[in-house]
Amino acid sequence: MSGLVRSLNLLRGTLSHQIVPRANISAKPAKHVVTTGEQAFVMVTMFVTVLGPSGWVLAHLEDYKKRQ
Asked: pTM for the whole thing?
């Protein structure tokens, strides 16, 4: 039982000294206004980057199943 108590004491010691980061929250308006064109470009780029490869694999799934 003393081994369990020692383990719990070790855990309690490490958890009590954690540093909590502060959030950088600002009430000021943005320094640079992002236009609709910039937002659209970034969204299309993100979708193509993430969904492009997965779409390719799903479209060619039957080719990957064949053993040659």
From this structure: 0.48
H or E segment to which residue 53 belongs: helix 36-59
Question: What domain range includes position 57?
Answer: 35-68
21 within domain boundaries: no
Instruction: Specify whether the CB–CB gap between 34 and 40 falls below 8 A.
Output: no
Nearest to 47 by CA among 59, 39, 36: 39
User: Could you give the number of structural domains in the chain?
Assistant: 1
Digit-coded pLDDT (tens) for 13-65:
555 566 667 777 777 887 888 999 999 999 999 999 999 999 999 999 998 88
